[in-house]
Write a structure and sequence with these properties.
It is a single chain. The protein has no helices and 14 strands. The protein is an all-beta fold and about 180 residues long. It has 2 domains: about 100 residues, Immunoglobulin-like (Sandwich), CATH 2.60.40.10; about 40 residues, no CATH class. The strands form 5 sheets. The protein has a 4-stranded antiparallel β-sheet, with no helix packed on it. A hairpin with a 2-residue loop joins strand 7 and strand 8. It starts with a strand and ends in a 13-residue tail after the last strand. About 10% of the residues are buried.
Length: about 180
Amino acid sequence: MFLADNSGGDYTSGIKTFTIEVTASSPPEISGLSDQHINQNSTFGPLSFSVTDLETADEAIMVSAISSNTTLVRNADIQIVADGSFRHLTIIPVSDQYGTTDITIYANDGSTTTTEQILFTVHPTPSANIGVASDQFGYTKGTAPLSVHFLPVDIQHEEEITGWGGLSTTIIITHQRQL
C-alpha cells in the first residue's frame, strides 16, 4: 500500500504487490566416518568418506578438519584430498605420542556448515627398559633399552588389543673389563 501527495492537496493511494522468493539451502551431508584406532608411530589412512549437497556441486564443497589435542595430532598433519564427492582423510600423529583426540570434520557449501566428529585413538607401543646392575667394581652403569615383543591374546577388534601374553626369554648380559 502507498500514499502519495502531489503537493496540490490531492492524495493518491494504491496497493502494489510483489513476491520475494527465498530458497532454503540444505546443509552438506558427511557420511562414511567412524572412530579410528592406530598404533603409536603409525600413519592413519587414507580413509575415504563422502560429502554431498543438494544445491552445491560436490567438488565445490569446502572440507577441513581440526584436532582437539594438538599435542597428539597437529592440525597441519590432518590431510584431506578431494575426489568428486569423495574425500580421503590421512592423519599423521606426532612421533612417540599416544592418547585420544576428537577430529572434527567441517563441510561448507558457501552458506551452511555441517560438522562430524570422530574419536581418534593412538595406542602406545609396549616397551620395557631394564636396569643394568652395578657390580662391586663399577664396571657397568646406567640402563640399557630392551625391546620386548608381545603376543596379542585378547583381540576385540582388529585394531584394538586388550590383553597381552609374553614369550619366555632368557637374557644374558656380559661385560668385559677394558684395560
